[in-house]
Specification:
Mean pLDDT of chain B: 89
Number of helices of chain B: 19
Structural class of chain B: mainly alpha
Mean pLDDT of chain A: 87
Number of strands of chain A: 2
Radius of gyration of chain B: 22 Å
Strand content of chain A: under 5%
Radius of gyration of chain A: 23 Å
Low-confidence stretches of chain A: none
Oligomer: heterodimer
Distance between the termini of chain B: 24 Å
Distance between the termini of chain A: 39 Å
Largest sheet of chain B: 2 strands, antiparallel
Strand content of chain B: under 5%
């Protein structure tokens, strides 16, 4: 099983090398499809064999000796409750993304699929790695193929979009790198006999405690990188450009997988490493999340371009995820994790659908459409399901995540205000407004544009790639526990441990040894610690 | 006395071999026809022999010619790097079209390169202030001439003149500093300097001035801000092979010299590893000073590189920035810091030479060094452009390339010594550097070329050289243990 995980991760990369030998475009496509399908098929046994009761234990682990002389950096890959679902989501989208670019990519086909496959390995590595340096390597590796995907195969404004995308992400990740190295040395001094270590299991263990001042800076550095990646308001400005200009496959991977790296990073690293800072910053992060929810929704409402509308809806939806994470209770964090998957499925589906009409009409302007439901009935059904899932209709997946998050945020001790939930919930209403309004303008009404009269309905390939997504949209909506069970134990334990850890750090913190701002910020004088403890 | 000298000669074979090569090149130049590259191959063979002789010295740790120079793992490490760089430069020169009009003068060209190599070999090994200065001048004078080698190109002549003017002043200042240092310590070898500083001196102010003056000289050679003004013009004007050589080899040699000089003479050997704690240096916070120089180099180098359109000039500014990153390791003069520098220069060697090499290939075919003219090349010469992308990504310091490992170690060394602000500046300037590196990639891949789309074909030989540079850059990004082991092993300096 351990070796299976490695195969799943590196198979796409191997495929990219094999592509170099491929002679025809057809062969390139077939190889890519085969490789991604194989990678997905091989990942299914991982999910089936996952020990749900011990989801907090890293499973299918591969661990090597130290890679870097003098630094205790090991290649550790494994899956646990936090990463399993996202890992599966990534392997699941592999073949779908390949299929979606089957005919729409006409130039430099080999390069395109090679980039997709490298990106796939990078993304899988991000979710599977349990060492921060290895994580960082994969995190950065995903940037370069995406840069080329947007830059070579993107739309009109692709060049500005690539620059924005690359720079924003890199600013965050380099600051994170600095923090990461600092953290490694700090942890080494504290718990690893003075040898630099970035082993997640060591850093997240209750034994390792970071002082309040360091926690603040480290948290800010890590959170900045992840918030840019999410993207959280006000770091979101790269996203609409990147999404709009990217080719369909690029948008789907970006939305379904790469954005999740940000939220995943927040849960995996920020919560267990910096428990006090996470608590203290929770209301701020929550506030930004809520602003993002409303802002994203309002901006989405006025978009003329369908793809841009979906892009802004992402900002809004990911606001929910961040709100859930920083509500810091099991229900909300569970909701956040399932919502990451949901957003991947529904927004991924929406981008696929937008890509399909773009392939037919070479425009994405809402005003160019209207009345498509008559000409493309099958398409209309799929589009409807994806739209409703994105809106959060009960019975479909979106509802589950949003409900858990809002409910969790309502009871959250750390957020300590109902306003987060009340304002956040308006995002659901606004989502219904902009999504359904968009749907109506595109699909219903009379056909105003003659070009739309003879549009072909979905072909077999397009139906094949949408059906699996729809199945999961409905499945999660009806039986959410089939999926939430994987992370439940780990989330419970992670939150509990970080609560204890934060209480312990607060207790040992001495107000007079801290700079004034830190004492005030962490409310050392009052019984903040006990308040958390009671929950 | 005589015995010492005879013994020392046994440890001096690499340098002797260079001198022999130099002489052979001169003679061969007179005897052979000048229409082909026979002389290049002779020179290459000489360098290979020298390289083997250097490798023979591994494990030695001794001092030769009455403490004039040391043959220790530290020196051997840098000699290996220098010889690798020189071998590549000869290969580049064989492929360069820029040098074709000067084919009849190739003997002269290689003779000067041999002189430079000899100077740099002495620079990394010398432990005597006088020899340090001699080695320094030997390198400089050869490089002044080489910078102006393509003398019919106006820019080349201009660069050469600027280089001489600037170099003469800097080395004059350095010589003044050295003479002051000799004056107050009454010693010419760096161990003696250290001993007499340990015994205490009356006029620390003179010592500080002397050190600052020496930093000026070395700073000039490394091209670190504020002693970098010569670099862009010289790099742009010089033939691209020489630009690459200056940007890699002479910079690395000067770094080695600086490390040895500072570590051996200005550090309290009784309490090694703690820098700046020596009471004698109370009045001169020199690691803070160097930290500022490093920060300035990173900021100025990267910001100025943004505006450049000539690829050589862009790489010149980028190399100034890289000097800043290297200096970061120097600020932390612990074993960690020095290992980090050694790893950095090793990786830097391949990635920077690679970038210059691809630039040279393009300039051979397209006759231009303008980045704007690279538009659409990505699909006309895919292999070369992918390689260029890898080199530039490595120079930025992104994984999974060798550049990331280099940055990781240098950042790590600085952070573990508490220089967080410096590392933050380094991180932010790295982002800035991405702008101009990625601009090349952008032009190559994201734009259509104006009208022309037939592929550029390069011969097999040039592809082989490309792979010799590309493979290390990729390989050392994932498998680097031998390099790190080599660097750590090579920390040992004679007398420490």
């Amino acid at each position: 099983m351990d070796i299976l995980l490695q195969i799943v991760i590196y198979l796409p990369l191997l495929g990219a090398l094999v592509l170099l030998a491929a002679r025809t475009d057809e062969m390139v496509r077939m190889i890519s499809l085969f490789v991604t399908l194989a990678s997905f098929a091989l990942s299914v046994p991982l999910m089936l064999n996952f020990d749900v009761a011990n989801s907090h234990v890293a499973q299918f682990m591969t661990e090597t000796g130290p890679l870097l002389a003098g630094l205790d950096v090991k290649y550790i890959t494994a899956l646990d409750g936090l990463s399993l679902l996202l890992f599966m989501l990534t392997t699941f989208f592999g073949p779908i993304v390949v299929l979606s670019s089957w005919t729409s990519i006409k130039k430099h086909v080999k390069g395109f699929f090679a980039m997709l496959l490298i990106l796939q390995t990078g993304s899988l590595g991000v979710f599977a790695s349990l060492d921060l340096v290895v994580f960082y390597v994969f995190f950065e590796v995903t940037l370069i193929p995406m840069y080329f995907l947007i830059g070579i195969w993107g739309g009109e404004g692709r060049i500005a979009a690539t620059i924005k995308f690359f720079l924003y992400t890199l600013v965050g990740s380099l600051i994170m790198l600095v923090a990461l190295i600092y953290l490694g040395f700090h942890a080494g001094d504290a718990i690893n006999n003075g040898v630099f270590t970035t082993d997640w299991r060591l850093l997240s263990s209750p034994v390792y405690q970071i002082g309040l001042v360091e926690q603040t800076w480290l948290f800010l550095a890590f959170a900045l990188a992840f918030c840019i990646k999410v993207p959280l308001f006000p770091f979101h400005t790269w996203l609409p450009y990147a999404h709009t200009e990217a080719p369909t496959a690029g948008s789907v991977v970006l939305a379904a997988i790469m954005l999740k790296m940000g939220t995943y990073g927040l849960v995996r690293f920020c919560l267990p490493f910096f428990p006090n800072a996470s608590e203290a910053f929770a209301p701020w992060m929550g506030a930004l999340a809520v602003i993002g929810i409303i802002y994203g929704a309002l901006v989405a409402m006025v978009q003329k371009d369908v793809k841009k509308l979906v892009a802004y809806s992402s900002v809004s939806h990911l606001g929910f995820v961040v709100l859930g994470i920083f509500a810091l209770n099991t229900m909300a964090v569970q909701g956040a994790i399932i919502q990451m998957v949901n957003h991947g499925l529904s927004t991924g589906a929406l981008f696929l659908i937008v890509g399909m009409i773009y392939d037919r009409r070479h425009t994405r302007m809402i005003s160019d459409f209207g009345g498509l439901s008559g000409v493309m009935p099958v398409f209309a059904v799929f589009f409807m399901i994806a739209t409703l899932a994105s809106v959060g209709l009960p019975g479909l997946n979106g509802f589950v995540g949003e409900f858990l998050i809002l409910n969790g945020a309502f009871h959250s001790v750390v957020l300590n205000s109902y306003w987060f939930t009340i304002l956040g919930a308006t995002g659901v209403i606004l989502a219904a407004v902009y999504m359904l309004w968009m749907y109506r303008r595109v699909m219903f009404g009379p056909i105003t544009n003659k070009l739309n009269e003879k549009l072909a309905d979905l072909n077999a390939r397009e139906i094949t790639l949408l059906v699996p997504v729809m199945i999961f949209i409905v499945w999660i909506g009806i039986r959410p526990t089939h999926f939430t069970q994987y992370s439940e134990h780990q989330v419970t334990q992670l939150l509990e441990e970080s609560r204890e850890k934060s209480a312990a750090i607060l207790q040992s913190a001495k107000a007079d040894e801290l700079p004034g701002w830190a004492g005030k910020f962490y409310d050392i004088t009052q019984e903040f610690a006990s308040k958390i403890g009671e929950e | 006395m005589v015995e010492n000298i005879l013994n020392s000669i046994g440890h001096f074979y690499p340098e002797i071999s260079i001198v022999v090569t130099l002489c052979v090149v001169i003679i061969a130049d007179l005897l052979l026809k000048r229409e082909n590259h026979t002389i290049s191959w002779i020179f290459l063979a000489g360098l290979t022999v020298t390289g083997l002789l250097v490798l023979q010295q591994t494990g030695l740790n001794t001092s030769i010619f009455h403490d004039m120079a040391a043959v220790d793992p530290f020196a051997v490490f840098f000699k290996v790097i220098l010889i690798i760089a020189s071998l590549f430069i000869v290969l580049f020169s064989i492929n360069s079209r820029e040098l074709d009009p000067y084919k009849s003068r190739l003997g002269e060209y290689y003779m000067l390169i041999a002189g430079m190599i000899l100077g740099m070999f002495l620079m990394v090994g010398s432990t005597n202030l006088l020899l340090i200065y001699l080695a320094f001048e030997m390198t400089s004078i050869c490089s002044y001439v080489l910078a102006g080698f393509t003398k019919r190109a106006l820019k080349s002549a201009e660069g050469s003149i600027k280089y001489i003017m600037y170099g003469a002043v800097s080395s004059g200042i350095m010589l003044y500093g050295i003479s002051l240092l000799i004056g107050i310590t009454a010693a010419t070898d760096i161990y003696g300097v250290n001993a007499s500083l340990a015994a205490g001196i009356d006029q620390p102010m003179i010592l500080y001035i002397a050190i600052l003056m020496i930093i000026v000289g070395i700073g000039f050679k490394i091209a670190v801000v504020p002693f970098h003004f010569w670099a862009p013009d010289v790099y742009e004007g010089a033939p691209i092979t020489i630009t690459a050589f200056l940007a890699v080899a002479s910079k690395i040699a000067a770094v080695a010299l600086m490390i040895r000089l500072f570590k051996v003479s200005f550090m309290d050997t009784a309490s090694v590893q703690i820098i700046g704690d020596w009471p004698i240096f109370e009045g001169l916070n020199w690691n803070m000073l160097l930290a500022f120089m490093a920060a300035l180099a990173m900021i100025a180098g990267n910001l100025t590189a943004l505006k450049q359109d000539n690829i050589k000039r862009m790489l010149a500014y980028s190399s100034i920035a890289h000097a800043g990153y290297i200096l970061m390791g120097f600020v932390v003069l612990t074993d960690e810091g020095i290992t980090a520098i050694m790893i950095y220069v090793f990786m830097y060697l391949f990635m920077n030479l690679g970038a210059f090499y691809v630039a040279m290939l393009f300039s051979n075919k397209l006759n231009t060094e303008s980045i704007e003219k690279y538009k659409g090349l990505g699909f006309r010469a895919p292999m070369e452009c992918i390689a260029m992308t890898v080199f530039l990504i490595a120079l930025t310091g992104l994984p999974p390339t060798a550049g990331f490992i280099a940055k990781l170690y240098i950042f790590g060394a600085a952070i573990s010594a508490g220089w967080i602000w410096l590392v933050l500046i380094a991180g932010i300037t790295t982002v800035i550097s991405l702008f101009y590196y990625i601009r090349v990639v952008k032009n190559m891949f994201f734009f259509k070329s104006d009208g022309i789309s037939e592929p550029l074909v390069f011969d097999a030989g040039s592809k082989v050289i490309l792979f010799m540079l590309l493979i290390p850059v990729l390989l050392f990004g994932i498998y680097f243990t031998p390099i790190i082991e080599f660097a750590r092993y090579s920390l040992k300096m004679f007398g420490m």
